[in-house]
Amino acid sequence: MHLLNLGILAHVDAGKTSLTERLLHTAGVIDEIGSVDAGSTTTDTLALERQRGITIKSAVVSFPLDRVTVNLIDTPGHPDFIAEVERVLGVLDGAVLAVSAVEGVQAQTRVLMRTLRRLRIPTLIFVNKIDRRGARGDAVLRRMARRLAVPLVPMGRAAGLGTRAARFVPGLGPAALEALADHDDDLLAAYLDGGVPADRLRAALAAQTRRALVHPVYFGSAITGAGVPELTAGIERLLPTADGDPDGSLSATVFKVERGPAGEKVAYARIFSGTLRIRDRIPFGDGSEADALAGAGGQGQAVRARGAEGRGRGDRGRGEHRARDGQGSDGPTAGRSTGDRERRPAADGRPQGPAAVAGVRGQAAESHAECRAVGRVTGLSVFDGGSDVRRDSAGAGRIVKVRGLGGIRIGDALGRPRQAYGHHFAPPTLESVVVPGAGTDRRSLHLALTQLAEQDPLIGVRHDDLRRETSVSLYGEVQKEVIQATLADEYGLDVTFRETTTLCIERLVGTGHAVEFNKKDDNPFLATVGLRAEPAPPGSGVRFRLEVELGSMPYAFFKAVEDTVREALGQGLHGWPVPDCTVTMTHSGYSPRQSHAHQGFDKSMSSTGYDFRGLTPLVLTEALRRAGTLVHEPLHRFRLDAPADTLGALLPVLARLGAVPETTAARGAAVGLEGTVPAARVHELEQRLPGLTRGEGELETAFDHHAPVTRGTVPERPRTDHHPLNRKEYLLNVTRRVGD
Question: Where is the Tr-type G domain (predicted)?
């Protein structure tokens, strides 16, 4: 039987979880339909979900159709939990997007649809709640066409709107034919000639839906069941099933991690190829590690692996190396020694010069291969008939629960890495300090928040040892309330939160370069590090590159520099993260392992990872200072509908809040405004709107982009590091000395 991994997505309160219940009931998996209000739904298993009536964590449940077994993933609808949705998208074969026939297209609906289109995930649309008072059919369809801006294929029409007798009347009309003909010239020719056979139309519909070119639209009610049989038929006939070779090499992606009853980690993964078996020993780790380091040494070689620091150390002579004239290290003069490194065997007989470089290349590749963790699968479950069932093996296409991999993280690849785990939605734009209550131990709080971050990495736990404070990144106030309740219910920890603040970022203005040499000037570290920092496009992330030979020093020292660079970029010149830049290592050097006569290894004479971890923040900070950074604040795009006669009162308030209306459209006695507003002012705008519009205003906002702070004082974020901006203070904190 074929497999289909299906996501159910929607704006909050569009009836997504109720639709999941109805699909399970229609398939015969459950005898009685659960109620969100009563807290009896199948997929809302957390006590907090049942209390609040909202989905907080994604949940998987399976049901059979005639020829397909569907693994249905119910996702949160509230914008505060969009990160949970993001992790699911990479494992889907298809999706159903639920839209309320009463509220229509909401801000979150547009965000979800844009992302589904960008990822080319085949998607059906279900207009729910046609039995509710105020339900609209054609009006919602027109609004979807306008606001979602995607090709829609109405699969029928809704009748008896707003009554318990509301029903779905199937039938493909002219609008469906026109939408399909836009992507099929032969179909268009047949249409113009006067007729398209029904089987040809159905074949075109299935083909274009599977390619995510069009989106079939169904109407119905999850409560009464209207339209659900037709939707179920569409899921089976129109969406593509999972592919992948069960006999191929294992490749799977982890999209969820939870803790079992004994505190053990349980990973949810989609298998894309191969077969996973109980007791298998499998490698796992970040998918970005697919970029091997073997053969490194050319210009701009990227370094990505998570190597063990202790690997790759040798007794080679001290050398300080740089790329000359902006070139790589393969040229005749590139990487020339400036220390006592010579082309002669070391004391232990190891080769120097080109032979040593080749050896380190191989060593780096070996370290890279071994840096991914390896674990044994001790438990394996698949989803079947509404529950998870223990199995000895599972093949390509399956979603599985895996036990035994203690260090597993969300986004990790099992077996062969498939691709780097990407981000599809906006990052959190809020931050708040967690304040422990009376009787709450800080160590216990630290452990609890660390475990929560395993399940949701984007909450971004940030520990400030100097002030003994812990902060978390947030999408909104509801998420903050959920974290507070989770800490109380699951960990017995009483906490409060300080006022939520806006989370800014820093972007580089230009390019900056800095270098410090071993045993020169006031450098107290036994290391040479040169770094160049350059701006990168928004969303591209941090990239670390080499312009020195990978063989110029032990691989572990390169790894120490890269790890420290990535950590240090969490705090730019103003204390905010620097998320998008390229950092290139231009100089390297170290002191070899040395000792006094008849004595062991002397750290005071020989470089260690400590030297590179200590020096790198100073060099990077100076490079950032020379490049310059600008603080950027998050901006939301807003859509505001209000009575036209309130526009005069609205515009001055919008201006005072820093909002910039970009378009104004009159709609009879109403007016619609669209533009941008600083995220920090969204809450105030929401509070002011009812009074300004006699309670008739409607506001939608969603993150749009980051923009330079141009009004008022540039916001500063308290630093949690040893303050590398102040060299004397930094050295006192790190080395207890201020240099020679």
Answer: 1-243
How confident is the model at residue 434, as a pLDDT?
94
* Residue in this structure with the two tokens 């526009």, named with its chain if needed: 647
CATH number corresponding to 630-708:
3.30.70.240
Between 146-150, 604-608, 701-705, the lowest mean confidence (pLDDT) is in: 604-608
Q: Which residues contact 149 (CB under 8 A, 6 or more apart)?
A: none
3-state secondary structure 468-504: CEEEEEECCHHHHHHHHHHHHHHHCCCEEECCCEECC
Residue 184 has pLDDT above 70, yes or no: yes
In the CATH scheme, what is the code of domain 2-238?
3.40.50.300
- pLDDT tens by residue, 105-143: 988 888 899 889 988 999 999 999 999 999 999 999 999
What are 387's two structure tokens? 């529950």
Share of the chain above pLDDT 90, in %: 49
| Residue 278 DSSP SS3 | coil
Kindly report which listed range (76-90, 468-482, 649-663, 681-695) carries the lowest average pLDDT score: 76-90
155 contact partners, CB below 8 Å, separation of at least 6: 170, 171, 172, 176, 216, 217, 218, 230, 234
How big is the chain, counted in residues? Answer: 740
Residues of CATH 3.30.230 domain(s) within the chain?
A: 298-372+507-602
User: What's the CA gap between 137 and 135, in Å, rounded?
Assistant: 7
pLDDT at 586 over 90: yes
Give the pLDDT band of residue 213 (cuts 50, 70, 90): very high
Checking if the pLDDT of 70 tops 60, the result is: yes
pLDDT score for 97: 96
Nearest to 505 by CA among 636, 635, 631: 631
Give dist(CA 364, CA 358) in Å, integer.
Answer: 10
Q: Which residues pair with 257 in a beta bridge?
A: 267
Beta strands of 183-311 (E only): which ranges?
215-219, 251-259, 265-273, 275-277, 281-286, 301-302
Strand (E) or helix (H) holding 656: helix 647-656
Contact predicate 418/251, CB 8 Å:
yes
Quote the CA–CA distance of 236 and 60 in Å, as a whole number. Answer: 18
As to burial, measured by CB atoms within 10 angstroms (0-12 exposed, 13-18 middle, 19+ buried), residue 226 is buried
Beta bridge partners of 2: 68
Q: Are 472 and 456 in contact (CB under 8 A)?
A: no
| Side chain identity, residue 664 | T
- Would you identify the CATH topology of the domain 298-372+507-602? Ribosomal Protein S5; domain 2 (3.30.230)
Q: Where are the alpha helices (DSSP H) in 512-646?
A: 555-568, 609-627
Integer Cα distance of 684 and 682 in angstroms: 5
Cα–Cα separations (whole angstroms), residue 548 to 12, 504, 617: 52, 34, 19
Between strands 215-219 and 152-154, the pairing is parallel
- CATH 3.30.70.870 boundaries in the chain: 430-499
Task: Cite the residue boundaries of each domain of the chain with CATH code 2.40.30.10.
Answer: 251-280+377-415
CA 655 vs CA 631, 641, 711: distances in Å: 21, 17, 12
Q: Write the CATH number of the domain with boundaries 251-280+377-415.
A: 2.40.30.10
Q: Has domain 430-499 been given CATH number 3.30.70.870?
A: yes
User: 408-464, pLDDT tens digit by residue?
Assistant: 988 889 999 876 555 666 788 889 999 999 888 888 998 999 888 887 877 888 888
